[in-house]
Amino acid sequence: MTLLRQTRVADLLGLNFPIIQGPFGGGLSSEPLVAAVAEAGGLGSFGAHHLRPEEITALVGRLKTATARPFAVNLWIPLGGEPAASVDQLAAQAALLAPYFEELGIDPPDPTVGAPIDFDAQLDALLAAAPPVISFVFGAPAADTVDRARRAGIRLVGTATTVDEAATLEEAGVDVIVASGSDAGGHRGAFLAPAEESLVGTFSLVPQVVAAVHTPVVAAGGIATPSQVRAAHELGAEGVQVGTAFLVSDESAASAVHKEAVTGPAGRSTVLTGAFTGRLARGLVNRVTREASGWDTQVPYPALGSMTSPFRRAAEERGRADLASFWAGQSAPLARLGPAAEIFASFAGAYD
Ligand SMILES: Cc1cc2nc3c(=O)[nH]c(=O)nc-3n(C[C@H](O)[C@H](O)[C@H](O)COP(=O)(O)O)c2cc1C
Known about the structure:
Elements: H1 8-13, E1 19-21, H2 31-39, E2 44-47, H3 53-66, E3 71-76, H4 87-104, H5 119-129, E4 133-137, H6 143-152, E5 155-160, H7 163-172, E6 176-180, E7 186-187, H8 202-212, E8 217-220, H9 226-234, E9 240-242, H10 244-247, H11 256-263, E10 270-273, E11 281-284, H12 287-292, H13 303-317, H14 340-348
Parallel strand pairs: 1-9, 2-3, 3-4, 4-5, 5-6, 6-8, 8-9
Antiparallel strand pairs: 7-11, 10-11
The chain binds flavin mononucleotide.
Flavin mononucleotide (FMN) binds near residues 28, 180, 221, 243 and 245.
């Protein structure tokens, strides 16, 4: 079976193939990867939620130079309602994390909360820089954002982890909805109910979202082979968003140890954990994810992410898979190392 590639998603986003390379936040996206996927006829995406406004402006400028084809830049919409950690909780968390820092021989954890990111300033910079596509996770764009994007000719992509979230995104006026099943690697983007209550697998989520909205739907979560691309279309999706299989490409900014771990035997065992950032995310099972289930304190995002960041970075540099946060989806063992163009071509082969 071959698939028609000229779906509504391909038309709206200006693609030869309705294949989106999912954005990677926290520094794992790379400009060469975005450009390679864009040049191959898909939508390369750059996760920019950790960048300052002026960095976003410069990023979009460089990407426009790197490729004349469409690409997306992704931001995290503030969730709101997440409790701030108390001074006592932060101190207790620092004590729980201290052994990892000590083991790696780095300065002890700093219980001072990281500076919150100014989303409005990020968004203003991004809209002004006008990438061809902006994608969001953790929420629906405000009416004013949708208006500004339309006026600037920017297409908007929203991410849903439940049918209710998809309906909310449709109402907000996004052009394309990514239905992200709980198989997916990285953070769960739930925004209407707690992530723990929004864990629907891709196979179940996609047909339900397709039935509930008129907006074209892209399937995400656990897609790493051409047969899974075909299955996603069979379920009613008009495109796919692939994360883990591109995370292990030569061009991604993930470390060699991360890529080896994801595609090796460790890739068979992933878990949804809040241990590294305070928000639920899927990554490889290791000592930290196991030990965290016994913690009596787990401070919320973004405090935990800021506190764990130094030991995660040090663990990654030293190839310590037992302590690093190696994000990956449930199809990790199906991902293959190699150039992004080759990985893309294997997916593109599913289409006419
Ligand atoms: C390391 C990593 C970081 C991610 N960061 C983001 C992000 O910042 N924003 C976002 O919308 N999705 C993010 N995702 C989700 C991916 O874009 C994609 O939807 C997901 O990986 C698809 O599932 P798969 O990994 O099973 O292919 C991330 C995924 C991974 C593996």
